[in-house]
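Entry 14. Structure prediction run on the chain below.
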Amino acid sequence: MKKAISVIACLLVLMPALGQIIGHNITVTVTPDHQDWNYRVGEKAQLVVNVCKSGTLLDNVVVDFEAGPVMYPDVKKTNVTLKDGTMKWTATMKEPGFYRLKVTAHVDGKAYEGLCTPAFSPERLMPATQCPDDFDRFWGHALEEARKNALDPHMTLLPDRCTETVNVYEVSFVNNRQGSRIYGILTRPVKPGKYPALLRVPGAGVRPYGGDVWTASQGAIVLEIGIHGIPVTMPQSVYEDIRQAALDGYWEVNLDQPEKNFYKRVVTGAVRAVDYIASLEEWNGKEIGVTGSSQGGFLSLAVAALDKRITYVAAVHDAMCDYENALQKKACGWPHYFYQVTQPDKKKIEGARYYDGVNFARRITCPGWYSFGYNDEVVPPTSAYSVYNIVTAPKTLSVYQKTGHFWYQEQWDEWEEWLLKQMHLR
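Output returned:
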């Protein structure tokens, strides 16, 4: 009996390793006939849809699909039976943009999705967002006022997160006024010396942060910040409660009042994080960059534009860009303030311009790495590509066409390698 119990106990321990759940047996793929998914305006893209079970086409499968310009499909079909599990579709556009075919297969009461988003002359895309005449004055004044306050930095070692080569700290410093602090996780090499630096700015949401130990282990100072003015080492449940209460929909707060917009203290706080890094005696006084994805992509654009000490920027599927494109019934960036709004508030349109990544991107002067996916349904490639097109500084474009609002491993690896090269660690 004891032997049997031991065997059962061992099996229970091994089950997670032996029985991982990865992917689905039912797949929906939509494949274009151009390997790079790029076409010229007026050219026809031939798309092939395959619904498979165990890797083979599934007979008599029922699908719904929609097709047309991203966020504005002009074709919608339901309960279409694919006799052989496959169908073909021809896509074209008369002006630069992205076209999306999205297919949902219904199998045994479950829905499975697949999509493809070919581009038509994306290098010609330009944003619709206008820039306020006083944009530079507005942000110059905001930073001037914030910097009247001493940083008053606090630092607490987190021994359980440290390694033999990297020390990890929770840090905080004053943002735009006394009592308003930015919290983050600082990682830096244990070995005394002077090091390049990287600021990591966060995507949307409310969460704790762990710090970037790996990059620090390569020989860099890394500061990862939260934006909400609360400690970043509390239990996950605390952040979930806050997200559902005080910070619910924070990205929409005072959109019509630039001086009171929620993101004013967020942007100034991110720049103040550069001030904090620059105050560290371990910084080498040379390389200092900023990177982030989604909301963090926007913040990366903002910091790189507002602080000329930044020597490199990496923005990944950058959100909060080109809101005004929606006024022309074209794909706009998250949070899609004016998407399908019949009568948008003029004050909100004018207010949003101070917080549109487009107007920051126009002011970037340092080298940048820009990456996004064509299949992104949160941040449309339309806005991401438009932002890239207006950057006049040295730039690298790395498109991972099939990605949605997530990373592929290869994309992550390329991003890390580029950052390390900018810090002369590769």
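The chain has a mean pLDDT of 95.
Filed with the rest of this week's runs.
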